[in-house]
Design a protein that fits this description.
There is one protein chain. With 280 residues, this protein is of the alpha/beta class. Helix content is 39%, strand content 20%. The protein has a 6-stranded parallel beta sheet with strand order 1-4-3-2-5-6, sandwiched between helices. Strand 8 (260-268) and strand 9 form a beta hairpin. The longest helix is centred in the middle third of the chain and has 16 residues, at 124-139.
Length: 280
């Protein structure tokens, strides 16, 4: 495994591989890796000749300075896990190697910049776009891999690739859960033991609500999910939405869309957690 700190070195190395006809897969991360990230690496390895993983906590996608400072950073452990997984290249830069200029690549995301994560984290997706456009330009992958847990981000990335006419396949991989149902997340490590046990209620609420689909409207299912979460006062709900799967527009009848997903964001013990469940 080769570790790159400088964009120029990585870009040149990948250019040589591509000259030999090699396919490049890319998994962008902010570190604090878990099995969900490693499953993305494994998917890339199956579909490409070489896999690149970036480990970079992107400051521009945090709208809260405390959230940025508390985000877990475990680079040595991350590198160990990536080596064990057989990742070929790691890009672990300093901020000024990624942000070499002040170009703002933001563009109109339509409804995706108005709802859910965008509504509760102003500027978040502008930061995501600005870092990913730069990383894509550095890595120039054939395919990039993202997890279903960050559904809204996946939809934003697809728009980014289309907007800039990038020749990159955006591969959305299944959400990976702990054995007790909690969606794997780097933020889970910030939960105390007490709140970690409580966090399973998020998935339980999604499943419990979605079990009531037959004979109930999307609005009623949404209210059921909210009701299950509110039974524990330690949960503060940011949002619970039943939405279609492309623009995340609200759904009020099951026939309104071909793909429908239930999405949740909560605060628990000072940690913000998100999850979703595909209904159809």
């Amino acid at each position: 495994m080769i570790i790159f700190k400088l964009r120029a070195d990585l870009h040149a190395h990948i250019a040589r591989l591509k000259q030999r006809g090699k396919q490049i897969g890319f998994v962008p991360t902010m570190g604090a890796l878990h099995q969900g990230h490693l499953s993305l690496i494994e998917n890339s390895q199956r579909e490409n000749d070489f896999t690149v993983c970036s480990v970079f906590v992107n400051p521009s996608q945090f709208n809260n300075a405390k959230d940025l400072s508390s985000y877990p950073r475990t680079l040595d452990l991350d590198l160990h896990l990536l080596a064990q997984t057989g990742c070929d290249m790691v890009y672990a830069p300093e901020t000024d190697d990624v942000y070499t200029d002040s170009t703002d690549y933001s563009f109109d995301l339509g409804n995706l910049n108005l709802v859910m994560e965008a509504a509760h984290r102003p500027g978040h997706f502008s930061g995501v776009i600005n870092v990913l456009k730069r990383l894509f330009d550095i890595v120039t992958p054939h395919r990039a891999y993202f997890g279903q847990k960050d559904l809204q981000q996946c939809l934003v990335v697809k728009k980014l690739v289309k907007h800039f006419d990038l020749d990159i396949d955006v591969c959305v991989c299944p959400l990976i859960r702990e054995t007790d149902g909690l969606a794997m997340s780097s933020r889970n490590t910030l939960l105390s033991e007490r709140f970690r046990k409580k966090a399973t209620r998020i998935h339980e609420a999604l499943v419990g609500g979605c079990q009531k689909i037959t004979g109930h409207t999307p609005d009623e299912v949404r209210e059921e999910i909210i009701s299950i979460l509110q039974k524990d006062p330690d949960f503060t709900i940011d949002y619970v939405e039943i939405a279609e799967g492309e623009e995340l527009l609200p759904v009020h009848a099951w026939a309104d869309a071909q793909k429908i997903v239930a999405c949740v964001a909560v605060h628990l013990g000072g940690v913000r957690l998100i999850d979703n469940l595909v209904i159809k």
